[in-house]
Design a protein that fits this description.
Elements (H helix, E strand, L loop, with lengths): L1 H24 L8 H22 L1
Helix pairs in contact: 1-2
């Protein structure tokens, strides 16, 4: 579970960076808009937090 939580957090951070970059350049990245990246980042980060808390 720890590795899955780490993967979810890493994917969330990468998606967050892509969303912020897309918002700054005002163009979709790979055809995906910034709001989609940011919402996906939120889901991934919440999943990672939930998995870390489940271990305890």
């Amino acid at each position: 579970m720890k590795k899955l939580a780490d993967v979810a957090i890493i994917v969330g951070v990468i998606s967050l960076i892509a969303g912020v970059a897309s918002r700054l350049i005002m163009k979709p990245v790979a055809g995906i808009y910034a709001s989609a990246f940011l919402q996906f980042a939120g889901v991934c980060l919440l999943l990672g937090i939930a998995l870390v808390l489940r271990e305890k």
